[in-house]
Amino acid sequence: MSYQTKKKFGQxxxxxxxxxxxxxxxxRQGCEKQNTNQVVEIGPGQGALTSRLLDNGFEVLAIEIxxxxxxxxxxxxxxxxxxxxxxxxxxxxxxKQLPQNFVAAGNLPYNVGTEIVVRVLETWAGTGxxxxxxxxxxIERLLATSNTADYGNLAVKFAWSTECLEHFWVKPGSFQPPxxxxxxxxxxxxxxxxxxxxxxxxxxxxxAAPFVRQAFLKRRxxxxxxxxxxxxxxxxKRPQELSPGDFLFWGLQLGQQNSG
Length: 260
Description:
Blueprint: E1 13-14, H1 17-34, E2 38-42, H2 48-55, E3 59-64, H3 67-77, E4 83-87, E5 102-107, H4 113-123, E6 127-135, H5 136-143, H6 153-161, E7 162-170, E8 175-176, E9 183-190, H7 204-216, H8 232-235, H9 244-259
Parallel strand pairs: 2-3, 2-5, 3-4, 5-6
Antiparallel strand pairs: 1-8, 6-9, 7-9
Helix pairs in contact: 1-2, 6-7, 6-9, 7-9
């Protein structure tokens, strides 16, 4: 690869064709569910996934922060009517620039990947399916269940509003340059009837989220240390012992008390 990767963008370009095909299959499943042909790809890099998507007839809006990668992508597909690229930091993107109905996907930079998946969950109303490649430990945190070491703020928020249809692991050799950790891919779909809707501002999601965040700041401590108004039997529990439903219920209860 002649392109010199940039550490500041956390670039590790996916080059394994088998993994790329697996991701495309997930994207196709999402597009069929949403009845769309449009894909928003975050961090296309040198275009390995982009190429396969275009070959399979998808329309691609690529969002890429690196201007050198943008130049390369425009040279390859600038004349393709099914391709468009934005030179933009996805975390600062105005959602009005997105299609109305699309599947989101991307090999996300490790340094801001967690922030990106939460931003998409909470603000990208046009997508019901998102397929993310992240470091393995982040995928594990997204999928974790109560009473496990990886269970935390991320898992609770995703459990309130999504289901994971599939996930799989990817070794460092699938990338150029190889990262120092294993990676993973997970396909999430928004629930038709979420416990709490992250897209509705001021909703149960917004009201209960502060409780979840505060609870896991002291994950080894009993909840009564941070929330003295909780019932005694609940106050002796640690945050990882509460289910996503428990977090929603008590987050709303505490929110009502504070507003009252």
